[in-house]
Amino acid sequence: MLDTISDLVGKVEKRARKPWITQEMISEMDERRKWKNVNTEEGRKNYKRLRNELKRATDNAKKEYLETIHNEIMEFQRTGHYNFMYMKTKELGWKETQGIQNIGIEDSQGNRIVQQSAENVGELYYRTIRST
């Protein structure tokens, strides 16, 4: 029955929930899932290899994505576009109750700097709106 439906309607590709996840990574995740419950030496070996490759790829992709967003925000700050800077931080999708401080960015002395930056961005944004 499912085969008939997929023949008639077509198969829907999975969509990534995170912007740094590519379709290739999703297919690797599916491949990894196939090997997860294979209880042979070859199955465990393939699963471990795929898991490690996927972990490396997703970590690198997330790091590159966050660096790109960071550079865009810093460019907005440098040019004085605080409203765009605020919108870009909101675009990241963190809820106000969750807070941006969950990223855990610290300076060289070990002080958390993201929480302060998020508060400053909001303060600057509202200050520019009030002045216009």
Structure, described:
It is a single chain. With 132 residues, the chain is mostly helical. It has 2 domains: 19-79; 81-132. The protein is 67% helix and 0% strand. It is built from 5 helices and no strands. The protein has helices at 2-9, 23-36, 41-79, 82-91, 114-131. It is elongated. The chain starts with a helix and ends with a helix.
Compute the separation of the termini in Å: 61 Å
Gyration radius, rounded: 21 Å
Task: Determine the strand fraction and express it as a percent band.
Answer: under 5%
The largest pleated sheet is described as:
none
Number of helices: 5
Relative helix content = 55-70%
Please give the domain count: 2
> Could you say which overall geometry the principal axes of the C-alpha atoms support?
elongated
Q: What string, H for helix and E for strand, traces the elements in order?
A: HHHHH
List keywords for this structure.
mainly alpha, 0% strand, elongated, single chain, 132 residues, 2 domains
Topology:
Layout: H1 2-9, H2 23-36, H3 41-79, H4 82-91, H5 114-131
Helix pairs in contact: 2-3, 3-4, 4-5
Give a brief description:
This protein has 132 residues and is mainly α.
